[in-house]
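SAMPLE LOG
Freezer: B-3
Tube label: C17
Construct: single chain, 360 aa
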Amino acid sequence: MMEKENIKTEKINFNEFDSYYTSLKTKDDKFILSELSKLRKYEQKNKGTDYESFMIKFIEHKNLSIRVFILEYLKKSNDITTLREVKKTLMKEKNIRVIFKSIELLERWIREFSNKNKTKELNKNVEYIMNLISQSSNKKIINRLIEIIGYSDNKDIDSLIMKNLNTNNKSDKISSIKSIRNSSNSKWIPFIQEFLDDNDPLIRALACSALGNIGEEEHIDLLIDLLEDENLDTQKSSVLAIYNIGGSYAINLLEGLKFSTEPEIIKLSEKCVIEINKEKQLDHTITPEKLSEGFFGQRRKISSNDEFDEYDAANVEGWGSLNTDGTSFIAPDAIDDDIDDPIKSLSDYEKPIEQPDIDD
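STRUCTURE (predicted):
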């Protein structure tokens, strides 16, 4: 009996979406999730197939697993409708896991607007985030949102970043350092420099990461001491920052790390040198046509897509709703559980010849 109810994925079309949705939403949650999984697998195996307009109908489903599944699925989306739906989710959602996944999707769009110099769309969405921050009382959510605002630049953003940098709260500092990392703006170098010798190894590592994004070859010397930091993750972050800045000085330093006493540093530095040499070879193949397409000449950037899958999700009361004018937003109470931020690996770097779409 169950087999007869299963969707014929190879025959489904847009005209059938509404009728199938009406039928499927009456089934139990386990069955719905199974069918959605089948659609995603079929889509992955059949190029050109796209069930996004069907999947997104379940973004507000009562079942948490289904909502999370849909948000994961929407990572591949390049449809502006998805962005609007994600914003709606942020206005209504009470579950912390869904909230963070929605923020993750929002950041993907903002990063894309930034990379493609779509200033109007970027500023509009960062303004939306600033409004959420001003109305929220949940410190975890506020700090996650602060990480994103660095993609844009104005005095209000600068003020908020500086406010967090100047506190004694570790989470506040981390959110601002990440925001600076996303900014790629060299004006922040004097402030980041202060955190390179912070007592906390995570702060030092993130400061390295940020400097790797906003610094130039002249700033590599600031990272040299951290190549021998007492913390291995900080050493790795320094290696990656030097790689990210690039240049002949960076290559010489990275090649010299083959004499490091840390096997992981030797391996990582070797990978970095290989990647730089690959890029140098590609430089010889650059044509004016390729340059005009905008795929070359852009800085490597550390990806700041932090996953919160392991976050202990719990329903957060009081998330409320946000009107179109930005009023009546009621944020959830603060949550005290820490969210880890592991140091990114070499694979987290965006290569200049692979400018990603939204689903990168």
